[in-house]
Each structure stands twice: as C-alpha cells, then as structure tokens.
Amino acid sequence: MNSLAALASTASASLTINNWCSSDVYIFQSTGGSCDKGTNGLCSTDKNASPWHIKAGNGASSTLTLPFGTDGKGTSVKIAKTSNWATLPPVLQLEYAWTVGTYSGLYWDLSDLDGAGSGLVGSPFTQDNVKISPTGAGSGSGTCVVLKCPSGSLCKDAYNVPDQTATRSCPLNTGTMWIDLCEPKAQFKRSDVAIGFQA
Fold first, then answer.
1. pTM score of the predicted model
2. How many domains does the chain have?
C-alpha cells in the first residue's frame, strides 16, 4: 500500500470515548506540541476555551467520537474529571501518531506522566476501570491488543516513567479505537479481545 493510499484508508478512523463514570468528563487535545485545544480551537488556558464534554452515563448514551489526526504529528488526548483547565488538572492521556513509510502504522500509548499535575505521575481514573480496544485489520495481534487498567492502582501498561516501554502499534487500516472509562466490573473482565477480532 503506497503512502497516499495508506493515509486515505485512515480517513474514517476515529477515537470513540464511552463515559461510564458517575461524573462528567472533559477533554482537550494537543497536536505537534501545540497547546491543549478544545471544540473552538482556543488554548485551554483561555477563559473562552471550550473542552469536549461527555456527560456521566452508561457508556452507550455518553459517547464522544474524535477523528484521528493523520498528518503524522503526535497527538495527546487529555481526559479530566473537571472543567477547570486554568492550570493543567489531573488527566489521563492517550498519545498517538500515524506514520507512513518504512515504519508505517498507528503508534499509541496511555500515559500517567503529569497525570496528577505538572511533573507528577498519576491519573484521575486510578480508582476506575479503563479499557482501550483497537478494532479492524490487525487488531488482536502483536501489540495491537486491548489495554486494560484495573481500578485500585497505577496502570502497569501505561507510561509511569519516561523511559518505560509502553508504546503499542497497529496497522494503518485500524478502525475505531474505543476507550471505556469507569467500565463496569463484569463487562471489564469479560473479554481481553479487541472488538471485531475473532480469536
């Protein structure tokens, strides 16, 4: 698959976040080292900035879908339980980048670095079940597999130190990637297989 065809195949790829939490969640994202921006493109420190907002719910009815950026620049999706972003609040970060060429693929990770504040390791979802499920071609093989963070401790599969090896990769034709926040225990434990992948 050539570079243009590979990027074209990602046009419909997206990140879908399901909020099962009892509280609302708020999201900003940065691309290529830019400031954290929300729905209106303003930096999170601007008093008029507007984050993406997912109301508390049962997951299916409390969902947000963001298209993946496919320009090759790294993107950090920051998820918080507070709407106050005057300074960086505790966040959970999903970091990803699309690349083409020799090392083509979707590279992604979950990070707790700066998750409890600037320079502090942690996450506002430490006491909640969090699951990330890649879908589409290649899901379920290599490192393109479901990532689970059980409640009660820091996620061992997320970045907790800068030089930790926690980056995963999926093919460029990966489909929707799902994040389930505060997923109910029974559902969280039910499957380690990515949606759409038949073991």
1. 0.87
2. 1
